[in-house]
Each structure stands twice: as structure tokens, then as C-alpha cells.
Specification:
By secondary structure, the protein is of the alpha/beta class. The protein has three domains: 153 residues, no CATH class; 230 residues, Glycoside hydrolase/deacetylase (TIM Barrel, Alpha-Beta Barrel); 28 residues, no CATH class. It is 35% helix and 13% strand. Helix 1 links the parallel strand 1 and strand 2. Helix 1 packs across helix 3 and helix 6 packs antiparallel against helix 7. The chain is elongated and about 80 Å long.
Length: 449
């Protein structure tokens, strides 16, 4: 595919790179030579205001891909063939699909002024996707399907890449155990607190676990192993290895033999990533130290991460990850609402909008986190399962990556988490029942040219 543009900018190169990786078997080439474009017999897209001779798909450009500033954009959303679009014009596509795709994928709006939530995060309510009602749709993937149809109308012999639906379950291990391996002082303090708050059942439960009469409620790892085997799934585990306990970092020490053992055991079967501590957001040295600790435990350099509490600010967080040697991140999603933060169900390389360049950091977004349903939406397990299936079907429709986040402590089937274990089990049944067109066996990877 040959793309004509009078100006070739990093923003244009980035979005064309992403589009070609997603739907094509080739890297699309951009040329500013009008004569070459006109005489070429290749399939081609004219991305300019000129009307050029020859058979081509014409997309009239919005200005955003030719700018090197970050400014408020005048966005008016409408519907086209049942899908939300913006940057509308007289293009054959009905809008500038490249500019709109770039705006969503680059997270352009997150560089504009906004009021952060209590953890300093960009709130979902501030997003265009939420305001315009397409947060629950991988809109870019749907746009790409329509683009493929429009290309085929012009070039019936053009072949596209075969995409395959993937289910990628991921887990954040913030607290590997509820009672065990926490030491005498922490357990004693908690017993006193439970007694003062008249939580006698909690005290009895703790003592039974510590005496070996019952299994620790957070230890659901063998059950998850069985679930993955049934679903033929290859999950990702993100371990919190904070060196000190704090209000937001509550796992046991990574120096503890039991903690090291559970990490080592999982690393032999699954892919392992870092769950950088809450404190690491303020101190890059802490991030580097934690990465080194986890790498030493599994005897392998850690390449993947997901921010604890999904605490992320652009571009600072991603720049720190790159500086620390992280090359894959799985934080792209909202804590307050399920859905598609970047409006896509595909992996993509992060574009550093302030430095105006595509980076080597591969982003894999998630669309569902059980903590969102429990603590923010106050959903019942049944309500969450309905949403899970809807999101699953949306991703399956576009052959994207359906990635979810669960925490081992939410699968205890106790207290506020009663019924959530069953809900997850039913999702796996839904996945294996023939409702999907394929099963994911590998972490998504994209090679840069």
C-alpha cells in the first residue's frame, strides 16, 4: 500500500505504522512524490487535499497529524454506518480515520488539562469515549474493519492479515496471603484490631489458618492453574515486590522464602511481570530496585509491568518504565470504569506526544478489572458477568485481545467477594463453550520493523 501525503510527519508515520501492522501483511509506505503516486499501480491512499488522478482511496486530512503542538481540538461526534466518528469531512471514509485514530491511540486528551482523581490519575469521566458513549467499544478496531471494506472496493485483490481473537487473563498479586507468612507482629496487631471491632469470626479464621487447620483464603493459585488448563490459557502474573510495607503496598517482603517460592513457581509455568509499588511512582530508583529484585528471583530480566493502583501519568510514567528497561506495559485501562481507554483491543507502541516520537514501549490494554466492578460500580457478580460477556463479544467481533485483571484476594469467595470466584469460572466456561473463534496461547507481541 502506498500513501501519498504532501507532508510526512512523525505523527503520520506512527498511525500509518499502526494501521499497517493491524490489518496488512506489509508495511505501508508514505511518499510525498505526487508523480510517483499517480503512476504507481499499487493499491494506494491519497492523504491530501489534492484530487489526484488514478484509482485510489481518498482520505482528506485533518490538521492534527501535521502539527507539533498539543492543543484543545474541536471535536464533534456523529454516527457513520452505526459507528461514532469525528474529524468529519468529505473523505470517502466520511472522516479522517488516521487523525481520529491517532487522537485516541496517543491518548492526546490525557496531555490536556484535567482534574485528577485522588490517586492523581486521569479519570474516565474526562474522556471523549465516556462522554460520547463509546467507552465499551474497541472503536478503532471497528474503524479498521470498515477501512478494509473500503480498500477492497478499490482494490479487490488486496490481501489482509488474518487476525485471531485472544483471551489474555492477567493477575495482580498485591497480597499473596491473607494471614500466612506475615510474621507475629502483623498478625498480632490484626487480631487485636479484629477483637476491638468485634470481628470474632475473622479472629477464628486467622487462627485456624495459622495453625494449619485451613488453607489461607488468598491462596487460590492451584485453582487458577486448573482453570487455565481447562481454558487453554496462558496468563500473565504481576507481582508486587515492595521492600517496605505501606498504606498502599501490603505484600510480604520479597526476601521471605515463601514469597520467593511462589514467584519462582509461577515463573516456571507463566510469564511474570513487575507490579511497581505505589511509592515507585515518586522515585525512579525504587522502580529500578524492584525490577532488579524480581529479575533476581526468576533469574531473568523483567520486561513487563503494570502500575499498582493503575497509577499512571503521561508521559512521565511511561518514560520511567522505558528508562528502567521495561518494554511491555499492561496499565492501559481505567480503575473507575470498565471499557477501552484507548478505544482499541490491540497492542500498540506508545507515542511520546511531548517528544513527538514512537517509542519501543508496547502497550497491551485491558478492558475489565474485577476491582472496578466491586469497589467503584458496586456490581453484583451476576451484573459483572453480564458486562464481561458483552466486552468479550465486542473483542471477539473484531478479533482483538480480550485482556482482564483479577486479584487473587478477590477469588476467596468470602465477604464482599462472595460469588466472584463462580463468576470467573463461568467466564471461562463461556470462553470454552464454543462462543469464541479461537483461544489465546501466547502473550501478544509485535515486532518493530
Amino acid at each position: 500500500m502506498l500513501i501519498f501525503s504532501e507532508n510526512i510527519t512523525p505523527r503520520l508515520q506512527y498511525i500509518i505504522h499502526f494501521f499497517s501492522l493491524e490489518i496488512s501483511n506489509e508495511e505501508w509506505r508514505i511518499s510525498s512524490d505526487a508523480e510517483e503516486f499517480i503512476t504507481s499501480l499499487q493499491p494506494k491512499i491519497n492523504y491530501s487535499n489534492q484530487r489526484l488522478n488514478g484509482n485510489c482511496l481518498h482520505v482528506i486530512p485533518h490538521t492534527i497529524l501535521f502539527e507539533n503542538i498539543i492543543a484543545e481540538q474541536n471535536i464533534q461526534c456523529t454516527k457513520n454506518n452505526g459507528l461514532t466518528i469525528f474529524f468529519q469531512n468529505e473523505s470517502e471514509t466520511g472522516f479522517d480515520i488516521f487523525a481520529a485514530g491517532f487522537y485516541l491511540l496517543s491518548r492526546y486528551e490525557e496531555y490536556l488539562p484535567f482534574t485528577p482523581d485522588k490517586h492523581g490519575r486521569f479519570p474516565y469521566q474526562s474522556s471523549l469515549a465516556y462522554r460520547e458513549g463509546f467507552l465499551k467499544k474497541p472503536l478503532i478496531n471497528y474503524w479498521l474493519q470498515q477501512l478494509k471494506s473500503q480498500i477492497l472496493l478499490k482494490f479487490p485483490d488486496y490481501t489482509f492479515k488474518e487476525s485471531r481473537f485472544q483471551f489474555l487473563p492477567t493477575y495482580d498479586i498485591d497480597m499473596a496471603w491473607s494471614y500466612r507468612h506475615k510474621g507475629f507482629l502483623r498478625n498480632s496487631a490484626n487480631v487485636v484490631l479484629d477483637l476491638l471491632t468485634i470481628r470474632f469470626r475473622e479472629v477464628a479464621h486467622r487462627l485456624k489458618v495459622l495453625s494449619g487447620m485451613q488453607k489461607d483464603p488468598f491462596d487460590v493459585f492451584e485453582w487458577l492453574d486448573e482453570l487455565h488448563e481447562i481454558g487453554e490459557l496462558n496468563p500473565l502474573y504481576f507481582f508486587l515486590v515492595a521492600e517496605s510495607v505501606s498504606k498502599f503496598d501490603k505484600n510480604i517482603s520479597p526476601k521471605h522464602p515463601a514469597m520467593r517460592s511462589v514467584i519462582e513457581r509461577h515463573s516456571k509455568k507463566y510469564s511474570i511481570g513487575l507490579h511497581p509499588s505505589y511509592r515507585s511512582n515518586e522515585d525512579e530508583n525504587v522502580l529500578i530496585s524492584e525490577k532488579g529484585i524480581l529479575s533476581e528471583i526468576i533469574r531473568e530480566d523483567i520486561q513487563s509491568s503494570r502500575q499498582h493502583y493503575l497509577k499512571m501519568n503521561l508521559p512521565e510514567t511511561y518514560r520511567r518504565l522505558l528508562s528502567a528497561g521495561i518494554r511491555k506495559d499492561f496499565t492501559m485501562g481505567y480503575a473507575g470504569s470498565n471499557g477501552f481507554r484507548a478505544s482499541v483491543a490491540s497492542s500498540f507502541f506508545w507515542y511520546d506526544l511531548k517528544n513527538e516520537k514512537e517509542t519501543d514501549l508496547l502497550i497491551t490494554p485491558f478492558c475489565f478489572m474485577e476491582a472496578t466492578s466491586v469497589f467503584y460500580k458496586k456490581d453484583t457478580p451476576e451484573q459483572a458477568l453480564v458486562e464481561l460477556k458483552q466486552l468479550y463479544d465486542e473483542v471477539k467481533t473484531v478479533n482483538g485481545i480480550f485482556s482482564t485483571i483479577w486479584h487473587n484476594n478477590s477469588l476467596t469467595d468470602e465477604d464482599i467477594f462472595k460469588g466472584w470466584k463462580e463468576a470467573y469460572d463461568r467466564l471461562i466456561v463461556y470462553h470454552t463453550s464454543g462462543s469464541n473463534g479461537g483461544i489465546a496461547n501466547n502473550t501478544p507481541t509485535i515486532k518493530k520493523p
